[in-house]
Structure formats: structure tokens, C-alpha cells
Amino acid sequence: MKKSLLALMLLPALCMAQNPIIQTSFTPDPAPMVYGDKLYLFVDHDEDDATNYTMKDWQLYCTEDMVNWTYLGTPVTTATFPWANQGNRAWAAQCIERNGKFYWYVSITGPGYGETVSVAVADRPEGPYVDAIGGPLGNDSSQVVKGIDEVPRPRQKDTIQRPNNYYVELFADELMSQIDFTSMNYSYQPFTGGFSPIYLNSGFNIFLGTKMKDLMEDYKIELGVKLNTSLTNNEYMLRFSDYSKRLDKSITLHRYVTDDYSSYYYRTFTITPEQFGFPRGSKDELKGGTPEENAQTTLAILNGEKGPKRTAVMLNAGASLYIA
């Protein structure tokens, strides 16, 4: 029973290293990087005859199918950094690509520096690599982050960059429906003349609309339509809004379809008594008097008495009938 239990306890440990990627070298600290259609694996290299560890170079492997691996040699060694201690303590590496250059960061030691970090640069992942700055990135490994900023690179604008790390995909955020007698936008109705616009009632109508926006609410599209029961006084609206930059932008397209309201337009007329065969009266002849005098004048006009006052009443009455 004890032997069976011991075998079960050892089984996980025995199964962990049955299929190593690299079987011909001791390669700790693997650091993968995908570039193009290949996966590159940057590794440390411990010498076969080391009693503790002896690490004087870094190896590089690549694959296109995660099954078959190609050995690309030792593009970087301690000799790549002439100022560093040679022949040992080459460990803990990572490579990145930036602006067409490949930067291979390595942990290394140097006289007066102790454990520190340096960087080699090349135009291709497989090299050849050269010392990027001719010295360590810092006095010790704690200054790695500060040192990375000192790697030569093209100068960028001193602005805060907004990462675009997602594809814009709009989704319906709001659906609207409404039944009323209003217009969607009163500002774009036909001009009806006169001293002020007359807004035409679109009548009984149905409004249908939707709003769509993306995940980060950088872009929004609004659609709307108002349909009149007679399908004559209709409105259509399309609005696109861009909130992705510091200055918000919005474009609105609006169309308002109406009947012919030309009969409601204002027209201006100038008339004179002479046009209708009446003599022109003076202001004094048209002037009223006391309530009693005005009552007598009204009765006289109704009884057919002629004069400027009767002419004014007839002209006003005729204008009212014409307008009606």
C-alpha cells in the first residue's frame, strides 16, 4: 500500500518534463516574442560542464507551427558588451520590437556596476546585435525602467497618445417611438413671409428613431423619421457625432417634406380710396369725438349718409371680406 501511494505521489513530477521544446541545451528563462508568422524564443544558456551554473551567452530559437523548432545560434554573448564581465552571469533576457528595430534586454554584471541591465539592438530578430548604448542602463538592476527610456529611438511628439486598441463596432443603444402633433425640428420649415415665420403644424404623425454608439462612446449615430398619416408632411434626420478627440464634432442631415403652402404666404398690398371711386378724406374729417358724437356718426353711416367716415368703413369691410 505504501509503495502504491509513493508511486502516485511521484507520478506528477515524473510527467512534467517529458516533452521539452529544447532537448540539446540547458536553456532557462525562456522569453517568447511573436513577429510576422513566427514565434521567437530568447533563452539563457547554461554550459554543460557547469557545476553550479556558467552562462556566457543567450540562444535564439524560432518556430512556425509550435512543433518544429529551428536553432538560430547565439546572437548575443557577454562579448557583445565589452565593458561587462566576460564568460558568466548572462541571464534573464527579453526582446521587443519597436519601430523596425529589435532590442534585446539582458541581465549582466560589470565592474563597478554589479548586477545590472544592458541592451543590444539589431535590424532583424536573429541579429547581428550590437551594444545599443555602450554601457549599462543603470547602476544596478533596480534602475531597469529608468534605463529603458534611454534607449535611442525616434523622437515622438510631446503629446499624450490615445491608444486605439479596439475595433469600432456600433450597437443599438436606444429605440424611440412617439405619437403626437409636433415637428422634429421647427427651424427648417418653409419661409412663409411677413415679419416673423409661421410654423406649420405637421398634423398627426408617428416618430420612430434609434441611437447607436460604440463601446467607448467615441462615436454615435442617430436616425429618426416622422411619418404623417397622409405621408405628405414627413421629416427625416441623420446625425453623426464624433467624441474621439478633444473637440467634439456633430453633423446633422435633416429633410422636411411639406405640402404646397403657397396660399398661406403673406402678400403686401397698398390701396387708396381713389382706386375704388371714393374721394380722399383728411385726418380731421375722420377724427371722432365724444361717445355721444360717435354714436350719432355710427347711426348716420348705417342710415346711408355719405362722407369720408362712411368711405373708411366700406374700405375696411371690403378688405376683411377679401382676406377671409
Descriptive overview:
With 324 residues, the protein is an alpha+beta fold. It is built from 5 helices and 14 strands. Strands 1, 2, 3, 4 and 5 form a 5-stranded antiparallel β-sheet that branches. Strands 10-11-12-13-14 form a 5-stranded antiparallel β-sheet, with no helix packed on it. A 4-stranded antiparallel β-sheet has the order 6-7-8-9, with no helix packed on it. The protein is rod-shaped.
How would the blueprint of this fold be written?
Elements: H1 2-15, E1 31-35, E2 38-45, E3 57-63, E4 69-71, E5 76-77, E6 91-98, E7 101-110, E8 114-122, E9 130-131, H2 144-148, E10 171-180, E11 205-213, E12 219-228, E13 234-242, E14 249-257, H3 283-286, H4 291-302, H5 308-323
Antiparallel strand pairs: 1-2, 2-3, 3-4, 3-5, 6-7, 7-8, 8-9, 10-11, 11-12, 12-13, 13-14
